[in-house]
Amino acid sequence: MTDTVLEAQNVSYSYSRKGPKVLNGMNIKINKGVKTAVLGSNGAGKSTLFSVLNALYKPQGGRVLYKGEPLSYRHKGIIRMRSEVSILFQNPNDMMFKPYVEQDVAYGPENMKLPKDEVERRVDEALFTVGMEDYRKSPIMKLSYGQRKRVTLAGVLAMKPSVLIMDEPTAGLDPQMACEVMEIAEQLHETGVTVVMSSHDTDLVYSWADEVRVLGGGKCVYSGAPEPFYEDRAAVQRAGLMLPSVYAVNKAMSSMGAFPETPYPRTQAQLSVRMSGPGKSYGTLHVIRADKDADVTSVLSKEGMKGLPVGLYGISARIATESSGTEVGYPYNGPENCIMRCLAGSDAVLICDPAVVESAVSSVDFIERNGYGKIPVEMHEAVAPEKN
After folding, report:
1. Among 134, 106, 132, which Cα is nearest to 120's?
2. Distance of CA 296 to the CA centre of its chain
3. What is the dihedral of CA 10, 16, 22, 28, to 10 degrees?
4. In the list 31, 86, 272, 292, which could disulfide-bond 319, CB 3.0-4.6 Å?
5. For the whole model, what pTM was predicted?
């Protein structure tokens, strides 16, 4: 049985006494450990819902439950709840309170009255996770929009939430940085954080989310797996959304008799193998598990993998690869790019953070589980070099 970590019961909210209700009888559940995407057009109430779930707004009707208990709006109750449930707003400027990077990241932990050494440890860890450790002394005003977004994410991570709500986390970012943000979201999920996000990018959501919640008219109009919702074209149009491209192509190919509609592919690699069919000879995927201090180059040389295409996945893998000067062909979306090379019959190397290995090879599992063949996977361990 799935535990419900956050729940809105018949919640209503309006920004003015005579204004329309942005939330109007909202009923929604967020389940522990489930990657949940909240979808809807502009004005559907996604940001307002998130603010209500985080106790930034108090419902004018209905109630919000956290771990099965009604929220307490007394100061101590709110502080306690927000120490476990954090929200990342779309605009980073709405979340910056201090003039320098390390001060801003430390703001949340300091408000939690943590010991100074614990605050410093969390700041170091959070800045490393988002790749901003070299900017810790930088003035906030001199950072780019994307860098500010990283800093606000670091500030949220420093709180060590058990639930992370992300409001349009990739909005305004270039595609490469959007990939990094999604890697962080996946890494948090794999380490036990319940991640909830809103997005207009249906392709991104479809490849990531276990479940979707669709908002419309101030209510949750759909809750469950993505495919039954996308099957209802009228509902998709009413919600102001578009079909994910992988879903649309799979649907079109199945309607032409190329293959059955199920199992549903969620990624381009999964769709590609369905279109090519079983019986192919695939290359080997070499996965190097690498912590941030690992010597990646020695593994590539020792195992005879130099010259093979190399992809990255996860924060530690990025740090280790950068410090070793390893040439990387696929620094973003590494798992899918490497698996596509394997589908074409070539071997490939994926340098991977240990926390996200299972996620990285999910398309390999899809291929074998559904009878499309087998991509051999060889695991390698990269260790830190010995100190003299």
Report:
1. 106
2. 26
3. -30
4. 292
5. 0.92
